Task: structure prediction
Amino acid sequence: MRILWRAGLPALTCESGLRGSGLHALTGGSGLYALTFALALLSACQRAPAPAVSEADRPGFGGDFTLTTQDNQPFHLADVRGRPVVLFFGYTSCPDMCPMTMSRITGAVARAGAKPSDVVTLFVSVDPKRDSPAVLKQYVASFKTPPIALTGTDEEIRRVAAEYHASYELVPSATPNYLVNHTTAIFLIDRRGRLRQYFAFDEKPESLADALRSLLDEKG
Result:
């Protein structure tokens, strides 16, 4: 089991297959506290789904950013104001969790009774070395409802990850086929561009759908 604590949210790694829920948890530290929190993560899937977070209780981080799309065009989070946004971090060579996350998001949008055009899904690559706009464009085309894929320089990606208390780390490898440990949370952003809630990648689909439905019902 491996948990990255650096930026505040546990990074569920692609090779570890850790299954736990960090819903609403802001973390930090090490030692006994880290162990206690890790055990909480492993048992959290037994809990009932949490209700959608109210505006007053939303996390105190997140924010606007600028990156580059799969069409090699600049993207600003402000460009999609007026629609709820679902954001996650990953990379095109991710063996399992990234495709699973995309599938869960697609399912949640359908469960919420929304049309795909009602919600913006953003896929932020944490592997800018390999994930060029052209590579991202080919990758997202394989999904039934393609997300907007985003890349940038190492500095730009790290800045966005830090804004959302996410983290990532390349796993050393003697070959070009390296893995990247990364935070696998799903971030839900409201129509005004504010982070309202985040979920572990394996949170029950109904939880994400309920929260998404709440944001769709809100006026901008």
Observations:
- The helical segments are 31-43, 97-111, 133-140, 154-163, 205-217.
- DSSP finds five helices and eleven strands in the chain.
